[in-house]
Amino acid sequence: MEKQKQLEEYLKTLKKVAIAYSGGIDSSYLSFLANKVLPKEQVLAVIANGIMVPRKDYEEAITFLKENHFQYIEVPYKPLEITEFRENYKDRCYHCKKELMTILKKTANENGYEYLLDGKNADDLTVYRPGNRATEEVGIISPLAKFKISKEEIRQYSKNLGISFWNKPSNSCLATRFPYNTNLTEEVLKKVEESEEIIKDLGIPKVRVRVHDNIARIEVNPEDFEMILNNIKYKNDDNIVEKIKKLGFSYVTLDLSGLKSGSFD
């Protein structure tokens, strides 16, 4: 818990902070801890409302803020207006993150908050994250990374604090489900979101549906293969293959390599 103590003392020195809140466990832990060590009126969560975030995740994020009586502001965000995002360039995340963080920081500053913090953790520094450079350029503070707090440590600290979704699987921007240099639209992003919800309804929390033209490639952990295969054994209205095809796919496949974060990188 030494790292958490250091983090708490650091937050106290800032006195008043805004947090770029996504609803994931990293920014949830940071928001919870900031509200624990600082007066609630000195902490502001700023959350972007955009098509890149699954609606269920967004609604759960807002519920967390409301249930804990945290101050927050919702900021409309339209990533499809950014060419690099809409065309899904390899550096898409950099351009999207820079625009987003610039807007969130401006919102924080306009509401009297000098510092904007994000949930980037120590593990994020070791993998391909083009958005990291963007947050540094905008001047975002990343205290979890600063004190070398890993994802696993964040989950354990969150569990100790009583955050109910401490073990919630990580999610990512819906644009990551498509090969680079693929034109993205609101329609195709929603199609992926709905496909993943169909699979989650089976009781499989960790899933990615990757898109290859008219093919939906399902990635889940190998231990969940049997649940998928049992579901598709018989053709009926509850068959996930038929449900996903109705969303506009011609073929639905199961990736035998299992779930892999950033498999298009």
Q: Which class best fits the helix and strand makeup?
A: alpha/beta
Output the radius of gyration.
19 Å
Strand order of the largest sheet: 3-2-1-4
Mean pLDDT rating? 94
What is the number of helical segments per DSSP (H or I, 4+ residues)?
11
Strand proportion = 5-15%
Tell me about the biggest sheet?
4 strands, parallel
- The coarse overall form would be globular
Q: Termini, distance in Å?
A: 34 Å
Q: Report the order of strands and helices.
A: HEHEHEHHEHHHHEEHHE
**Count the strands?**
7
Please give the share of residues in helix: 40-55%
Low-confidence stretches are none
Verbal overview:
The chain is about 45% helix and about 15% strand. The protein has about 260 residues and is an alpha/beta fold. A hairpin with a 2-residue loop joins strand 5 and strand 6 (about 215-220). The model has no long low-confidence stretch (mean pLDDT about 95).
